[in-house]
Amino acid sequence: MSLEDASLDIVPGELLAVVGENGAGKSSLMNVLYGLYHPDAGTFLMDGKPVRLRSPRDAIARGIGMVHQHFMLVPTLTVAENVVLGREPTRRGLLDLDRACDEVATTAKRFGFQLDPRARVDTLTVGSQQKVEIVKALHRGAQVLILDEPTAVLTPQESDELAQVMRGLVAQGRTVVLISHKLKEVLGVADRVAVMRRGRTVAEVRAAETTVSALASLMVGEGSRGAALTGVPAPPGAVVSDARDAQAGLAPLDAQDARGGTAASAPGVFDARREAAATAASGPLDAKSEGAGTVASGPPVLDAKDLRAKGDNSRPALQGVSLTVRAGEIVGIAGVDGNGQRELAEVLTGLRALEGGGGTLLGGPLAGLTPALAKARGVGHVPEDRLARAVVKAMTVEENVALGRHRQPPFARGPWVDFKGRRERATRLLATYDVRPPDPTVALQALSGGNQQKVVVARELDADPKLLVVVQPTRGLDIGAVAQVHARLREAKARGAGVVMVSLDLEEVLALSDRVYVLYEGRVTGHFPRKDLDERELGRRMLGAESDHG
Amino acid sequence: MGERTRQVLPSVLSVLLALAVCWLTIALTRDADTATRAYLQMLWGGVGNWPAFLDGGSATAVLRPLGEAAMKAALLTLTGLSVAVAFKVGLFNIGAQGQMIWGALAAALVGAHVSLPGVLHVPLALLAAALAGAAWSSIAGVLKLKRGVHEVISTIMLNWVAVSLVDNWLVIGPLRAVAEGHQSSITGTAEILATAQLPRLLGDSSRLNLGFPLALVAALGVWVWLGRTSAGYETRAVGLTPEAARAAGIPTLQRAGGAMALAGALAGLAGAVLVLGTEGRYPGSLGAPYGFDGIAIALIGNNHPLGAAVSAAVFGILRAGGTRMQLLGVHKSFPELIQGFALLFVAGRMVWLAVLRRRREQPAAEVPRA
């Protein structure tokens, strides 16, 4: 992910929010400001002078602090030990813990934090740990504090408290940059909002003068309005852009047209462009006309009611999701990353246990589903994390083709592996799906990502699934592979499979889906048949803007 | 370089390098001539003094050393297999020693106290040993799968439990041989019956017994199971990528538990081969740590069942011949030193491969998402 021509002005003593979809470049831009990424082009002015940040150490020295989404704390150390880590006060060469505690207590008090410097960090709540991170940054003299998705891990009460903390910091003359995609929250706390889309900053507005729905439109970006506002029309499919012309600027005092940028690794650039082009090629316009012909009317293969499940962090990830999928249709699941899509796919494939709700899946109950049971009923699965879930990379391609059906013909005869049958089937599939090299005996890890994905898709479709659950099926693939995977999904649909497609790529959802459900915080916030699909409305629902629009 | 060569070559080179390093050590502390002659003695001691035999010496000069080597190789093969099988499912079995102890005890008890014809007695004693080893390793298996206890920790601890229970209590206490007539043993269980002895294959001139072919059959069996059956395929999949195996509907816990039990059974068989083949009873203590040697054997054999058998054969030969080095005043522990160095170099290769692999993977890594 990267930046392309992104500019940002940061005015001292204000609370600036940076909003954008996943992959819009928010975190990349902040990592540039914090010295983690190095710009390929563009300039970076501080107090009017050009600055080069080689590392976070440089950034810290210049008064920039960052609180990452995942805390960088040592759980078994105390608050004070964590805060002073790296610049510990010493006495005769030994750590002076008392002084550390005093210093930390002073800093905390100055900014109004309730923190016991001697408490062990692992005994603190997440909200308090976040405060430790903030105090750590302030203790190092941060004038500008960057908070990356700080409320993602907080309860609503903690979020309110954090809002007060941020306002308090601004009142004391510090500058706060808040990265978020929660628009309501942002409007409640920020002075100014910068909107990013596809690696660019497309708008900067005063929080008081905008609405959730206006921001949502800017984030999703619908052609004319977005262009009119910014004067820079983003190309229609450029989800991934190369960062050669990245720009970013940080200017506590004044930095009009300051330029910075990010480090896009050189090898990625070519692929990224091709991917952008690929997505563009299957963009909404041609796709709509193409897919609209076949409207599904088959029997339901999935009828899920009120699904509830916990996420990996044991917080509720699905909070009552109901959906139906019929044979012969592709149902898209849209949403910003982390709103329950992954957990939904896992529930449907038996990988995640239900906490509540149920329904039927291919003639059997959805409750108590296991991966083996799901397979037996005819569920195919193309998971998001290919290397962890879909393949055994150290095994050969043919062994991977057999995975999941390895106890059935043609892959097995009784308890024995059927080497001949497996070889034949694998060879045929590799040819059909144009996997390169078409050699079933090489280790899967020797294949490129796109070809690995083709193997997975080939395997799952070869099983002739009645319900196919695909998650981010084209992430990281090049143009040819993307087109092929899309064609295969349409093929599965034509063969009468019900397809559930989770994708963070709105273009992809729009291109392929007959119907779209929108997930937001584990709930369905929108359900659109194809004819009612409206990119802008979809985007607003993805951001939880359900209430202020019918 | 073919895939097979790439798997075998590092192990072969590691062993050769270890041999060279140890030769150099002897040459530097003594002299080059002594080192070479000591190595020759080791070789004759392991594979037999062929020149002397061909010059008209007795067949014993060849058969005896070969028998000793095969005996040691059999034990190393079985414990090596034990470690390798667990490794295939992603578990590190440090507990072959403890599993072997229980296998040896079970074999000794069945061998001494059950009365059966030889055709049945030996298999029954072997079965008892395998079950005892499997039961012991399954404790670690269940702890791992149900409670998440790391198997390295639990198997190491279970080794000590086994030593304490068997060596320090059972065989000097309740299970100690009861004095018969004028004979009375201070420690150890009763002598096994003649029907339970593993038959010697070459008569009295060599201690080569059924244990060696048994170990080879075990190696072959594990190889076939892992490579040619669906259950073995599932086991490997679980070991390589557990989440993918789970998503594919493979019963991962069952596979891991099964592999751990098999590992224990193989180590238990090693105990049986020791007791039924050479010791004749469970001695006061099991002595040589064949269970721990199994770790080295498995790793040098690249965790491949046949690789383990080959590496066990090599080190069986070196160890059988090692005692002969003393004739030249060279300490007999050199074979173990060679084994240690070989393991070190093999481990070094793994580090090296890991570094290379990481380098290769890096360009393909995904760019972090914003």
Automatic annotation (TrEMBL), chain A:
One of its GO terms (molecular function) is ATP hydrolysis activity. Pfam families: ABC_tran. Gene3D superfamilies: P-loop containing nucleotide triphosphate hydrolases (3.40.50.300). Keywords: ATP-binding, Nucleotide-binding, Repeat, Transport. Signal peptide: none annotated. The keyword Repeat applies. Residues 275-300 are annotated as: Disordered. Residues 1-223, 302-546 form the ABC transporter domain. It comes from the Bacteria. InterPro entries: AAA+_ATPase, ABC_carbohydrate_import_ATPase, ABC_transporter-like_ATP-bd, ABC_transporter-like_CS, P-loop_NTPase. PANTHER family: CARBOHYDRATE TRANSPORT ATP-BINDING PROTEIN MG119-RELATED, GALACTOFURANOSE TRANSPORTER ATP-BINDING PROTEIN YTFR. This is ABC transporter ATP-binding protein. It comes from Corallococcus llansteffanensis.
From TrEMBL, chain B:
Its main location: membrane. Keywords: Cell membrane, Membrane, Transmembrane, Transmembrane helix. It is a multi-pass membrane protein. The chain crosses the membrane at residues 73-94, 101-120, 126-145, 152-172, 208-226, 256-276, 337-356. Signal peptide: none annotated. GO terms for molecular function: transmembrane transporter activity. This is ABC transporter permease.
